[in-house]
Amino acid sequence: MRMSKLLMPTLREVPAEAEIASHRLMLRAGLIRKLAAGVYSYLPLGLRTLRKVQDIIREEMDRAGAQELLMSALLPAEAYQASGRWEVFGQSMFRLKDRGERDFCLGPTHEELFTQCVIDNVKSYKEYPMTLYQIQTKYRDEARPRFGIIRSREFVMKDAYSFDLDEKGLDISYQKMYEAYNRIFKRLGLDFTVVDADSGAMGGSGSQEFMVKSPVGEDGIAYCEKCGYAANYEKCECIPTAVDAPEEEKEREKIHTPDAHTIDELVQSLGMKPENFAKTIIYRADDKYIAAMVRGDRDVNEVKLKNLIGCVDDLELAEPDAVREITNAKVGFAGPIGLGIPVYADKEVAMMKNFIIGANESDMHYKNVNIDRDFTPDVVADIRVVVTGDACPVCGEPIKSEQGIEVGHIFKLGTKYSDSLGLKYLDENGKQQTVIMGCYGIGVTRCVAAAIEQLHDDDGIIWPVSIAPYEVLVIPANYKNDEQVAAAEKLYQELKDRGIDALIDDRAERAGVKFKDADLIGIPVRLVVGKKCGEGIIEYKERSAKEAIETSIADAADKAEEFIKKNK
RNA sequence: CGGGAUGUGGCUCAGUUUGGUAGAGCACUACGUUCGGGACGUAGGGGCCGCAGGUUCAAAUCCUGUCAUCCCGACCA
After folding, report:
1. Are residues A406 and A516 in the same domain?
2. Pair (A429, A533) in one structural domain
3. Domain at A297, CATH number
4. What Å value separates CA A24 and C1' B70?
5. What is the CATH number of the domain that holds A424?
6. Do A107 and A194 reside in the same domain of the chain?
7. How many domains is chain A partitioned into structurally?
8. Which positions of chain A have pLDDT values less than 70?
9. Which of A88, A141, A203, A417 is the residue whose CA sits 20 to 30 A from A452?
10. What pLDDT was estimated at residue A287?
11. Is the CB of residue A546 inside 7 Å of nucleic acid strand B?
C-alpha cells in the first residue's frame, strides 16, 4: 500500500477524550474514530489489525475442531424470552421494535440462539460432540462505556459453544478450547495469565479467564509466584488467619460508643485495632434480608456471598430504613445478637476471641464477644475479599495482586440453557438425556486495545508482527531524490513479491514527519532509503529496537523477511 | 443510576470572573525558501461559541432548561 493513498489521519495532538494509552494511540495513529460514546468506526489501519486478530482466532478455532457459523445481530425478543433473559438483561440490552410493533434487540450474547440452532438442526446423539462458533458484533448498552475500545457498546466478540452428551465429553471440549485459547493469545503477542473465575450463581464446575496484565485493567488478579495459582479477585479463596494470641474468654460487656458507626471511628475512640472488631453488614438478597459478618479489617466479597446464598438476581446493601428497622438502631450498630435475620459469618470471624460487635442499639457495642457462647452464626463460610499478602490457598505463600484486562473466558455452562430451552437427545438406550454445554468467549476488539496497552512506548504503538496492519514500512528519506525514490520503490515491490504486507511512505513529506508517523503506527520493520543509497546501503530498524542498523539494499528484503517469518 | 468536570473552526486550547459583535497554535489552500526526527515566511479559506428559551440597547460571557462527552463510583451475560 502507498501511504499517499492511505486513509491514515494521524494526529499530532492527543484528543482530550482519551485517557489511557491504547485509546490515545488508536485515535492518534488513525485506527479508529468515535461516533458516539462507546461506538467507533474502524479506519483502514485499525481494520487490518482487527482482521488479523480474527484470522488467528479463526485458524485456531478451526484447528480445535470448531465450526464457524454466523447468527444475526438483530434478534427477536422470543429468542431470549424462554430463558428469561429478555428481563434479566434489563437496561443493558439495546431494544427496538419493528414496523409491526414486535420486540427486537441487538444481540448482547448468543447462548440461546446457538442452543436453539442445535435443537432445530441436530437430530441424533450421533452428531455430538459439536462445537460451534461465530465472530460477531455484539451490542450492550453499557451503563458507562469507557477506555475507548476496551469497554464499548458495540464490539466484536468470538463466541463458541460446545455441546456434549455427558460431563466427560464437556471436559474434553473445554480442554480443547483451553489449549486453543492459549495458542491464540500467544500468537497475538499478549502477555497473559489464566485465572480461576467465578462461574456465577448458576453453578458450573469450571470457569477460567484469560487476563492481559495491565494497570488499566478492570479486573483484579490474585496470584502466587511460587506455585502459579491465579484467580480472579472475586473468586480467590481466602485462607482464614487468626490475629489474636489464644486467650481466656472474658465476660461480655456492653459499652457506650456514641456516634462511632464506622470501624475507623471505633478504632479511634476505643484504641483497639480493626482486627478486634467484627462488622455486621445487612444485605438485601432478592427480596429477603441477611447479615454478613467479616473482621473489621476485611471486606465482604459480594460474589462469594451471592453464590453462597443462591441469590439469583440482586444482592445489594440494605436500604438505611431497612437497616434501622432490622437492628432497632442507627445505621452502624448492627450485630448478630438478637438479630432476626440469617447471619453469614466469615471463617475468620469464627476464629476470633473477645471481639467487638454492634449491639443492635444506637451508640452501643458489645465487647469481649465470643462465638457460640454469645451467638451462633447460621452459616460460617469464606465470604471475604482476598488481600495482598494472604496465604495462597494452594501452597501458603503470600498472594500478590495485579490488574488485568479480561480478553477471554471459558466456562462450563452445564445444562442451564439446554434445560430451559429443551435441548435433549435420545441415547442409545432410547432414554432422554440433556445436552451439556460449555461457552467460550474472546473479546476480539478488546484484544487489539490490550495489545497496544501492553506494547507501546512514548512514540507510539509497537505491533507484534502477527497483528500489525502492515509488516514492513519502506521510507524514501528524501522524496525529491530520484535515486532514493527509485530504490525505495524497487525494494517495496520486492517485498510485495515475497508476499510481505509492505507499505511505502511515498508522501511528499519531510523525513521527520515520516519517522514520527512510522513510530506512531508501529509497523514492525522500517527500511529507510536515505543518503547512503548511492553506496547501496540503507537503514534497517525494528520498531521494538532502539537503534537502526545499516544493511545493503541487496540484503534488506531478506533481513526483513527473516524477521517477519520468525516473529509471525 | 449517584458524584465531579467539560462543550468555542478538523485537533489542542484561550476568551466567560468584570456582557460591547470571536482569537492563538497545529491542520488545510497558494507561492517562495527549506529538506534525516512533526521546518520557516507571505497571502488565504474555514466557526449556528452544544441546543432551546430568558434577561439586556447588546450575550461565547448572566439566568433557566435540555442534550452530549469525559472522569470517579455503582452495574457488567
Report:
1. no
2. no
3. 3.90.960.10
4. 13
5. 3.30.930.10
6. yes
7. 3
8. 199-205, 244-246, 311-313
9. A141
10. 76
11. no
Q: Is residue A12 part of a domain?
A: no
Rounded to whole angstroms, the Cα distance separating A198 from A234 reads: 7
Is the shortest CB-to-strand distance from A201 to strand B under 7 Å?
A: no
Q: Are residues A210 and A151 in the same domain?
A: yes
- Model confidence over A267-297: pLDDT tens digits? 877 778 888 889 999 888 877 888 999 998 8
CB-to-strand B under 7 Å, chain A 103-142: 108-109, 111, 140, 142
Å between CA of A538 and C1' of B30:
35
In a shared domain, residues A415 and A344? no
State ipTM: 0.94
pLDDT in tens, A428-473: 999 999 999 999 999 999 999 999 999 999 999 999 999 999 999 9
* Residues A116 and A193 placed together within one structural domain of the fold: yes
Inside any domain, residue A282: yes
Q: What residue is closest to B34 (Cα–C1')?
A: A510
Using CA atoms, how far residue A87 sits from A30, A79, A82, in Å, is 39, 12, 10
Å between CA of A336 and C1' of B1:
32
To the nearest 10°, report the CA torsion of A144, A146, A152, A158.
-120
The C-alpha atoms of residue A266 and residue A259 are separated, in whole angstroms, by 9
Task: Please state, as a whole number, how many other Cβ atoms lie within 10 Å of the Cβ of residue A293.
Answer: 28
How confident is the model at residue A203, as a pLDDT? Answer: 46
- Å separating the CA of residue A142 from the C1' of nucleotide B75: 9
The grid coordinates of residue A97 equal 421494535
Domain containing residue A558: 470-567
Task: Give the angle subtended at the CA of A512 by the CAs of A15 and A24, to the nearest 5°.
Answer: 20
